[in-house]
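Duplicate of #3305? Posting structure anyway:
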């Protein structure tokens, strides 16, 4: 089975995932939704802004600019800057939801990578103050990019199965820890430009053909898992982590899709999808192929490839000291 194009998955999901229910789900463009899938599922997408040499743009899910054109401009040296969504913009979105009167849940881009969720919570409180009785929840998704897409897709299914908005929030706050994500980058250049690593380290990494394997922690922030000599070894490291953490072969989550996402690196993305298909129990698992959004892409650069999937509880990998610290802070198991 080939990886599914967004339009193919949208047709299937529109029939099997969206079955009514009284809850409006909102995400943002950092969830890397394909527009066809978002429309089929009835998910509203808030657009993050970004700035290039020709001025400010909004992340409209590659409607006004192709992913290839965007990343080609980065390859030629263009620097892209990003900013958080303002409380005012969130208020416009939430006020429309309040006017519609349907209980609403916003699965927000994780605070581990953006302060926007704080602005969303401020706006949500003001809207609820002006609209007593309106149910509006803002939840940190704790997982960036296509991992957030997988969370939202399954949230739609849960609403279709009868969960209320409040029950959905409880479900999301637990389910978000079961989405795994691993990725590698084409180079360290974008990280260096964004000040996340020293320029000298990026230069050394390039000369030695060092490729990182990264993931995200329990707060949604990026974390380095290891360094590999060469692109192929980095991709195989991702595959090894998929093999170790995916639990779909027991039949529990085989209906849930796997996401393969890239920043204009389709050849490697398709190679990774082909390898996932060869894993036990994965021959018929739906695979969604999508592109990294400009906002996330501005910080990772062209050449990123990621695999996201439902798997083991990420909290189980915490060390004893980390578990103890989380209990002391009252943040979970």
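Output from current build:
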């Amino acid at each position: 089975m080939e990886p599914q194009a967004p339009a193919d998955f949208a047709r299937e999901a529109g029939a099997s995932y969206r079955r009514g229910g009284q809850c409006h789900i909102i995400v943002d463009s950092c969830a890397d939704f394909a527009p066809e899938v978002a429309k089929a599922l009835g998910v509203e997408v808030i657009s993050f802004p970004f700035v290039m040499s020709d001025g400010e743009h909004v992340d409209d899910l590659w409607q006004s600019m192709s992913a290839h054109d965007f990343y080609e401009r980065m390859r030629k040296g263009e620097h892209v800057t990003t900013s958080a969504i303002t409380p005012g913009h969130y208020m416009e979105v939430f006020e429309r939801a309040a006017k519609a009167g349907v209980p609403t849940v916003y699965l927000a881009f994780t605070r581990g990578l953006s302060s926007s969720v704080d602005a969303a919570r401020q706006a949500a409180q003001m809207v609820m103050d002006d609209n007593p009785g309106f149910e509006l929840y803002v939840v940190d998704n704790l997982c960036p990019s296509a991992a957030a897409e997988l969370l939202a897709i399954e949230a739609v299914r849960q609403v279709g199965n009868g969960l209320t908005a409040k029950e959905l929030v409880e479900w999301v706050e637990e389910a978000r820890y079961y989405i795994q994500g691993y990725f590698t980058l084409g180079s360290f250049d974008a990280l260096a430009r964004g000040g996340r690593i020293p320029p000298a380290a990026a230069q050394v990494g390039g000369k030695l053909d060092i490729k990182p394997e990264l993931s995200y922690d329990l707060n949604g922030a990026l974390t380095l898992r290891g360094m590999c000599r060469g692109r192929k070894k980095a991709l195989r490291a991702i595959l090894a982590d998929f093999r170790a953490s995916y639990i779909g072969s027991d039949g529990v989550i085989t209906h849930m899709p796997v996401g393969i996402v890239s920043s204009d690196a389709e050849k490697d993305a398709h190679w990774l999808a082909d390898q996932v298909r060869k894993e036990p129990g994965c021959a018929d698992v739906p695979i969604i192929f999508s592109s990294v959004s400009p906002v996330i892409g501005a910080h990772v650069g062209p050449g990123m490839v990621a695999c996201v999937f439902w798997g083991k509880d990420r909290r189980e990998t915490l060390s004893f000291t980390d578990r103890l610290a989380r209990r002391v802070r009252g943040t979970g198991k």
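Confirmed duplicate; merging threads. Residues 108 and 117 are 6 Å apart (CA to CA). The mean pLDDT is 85.
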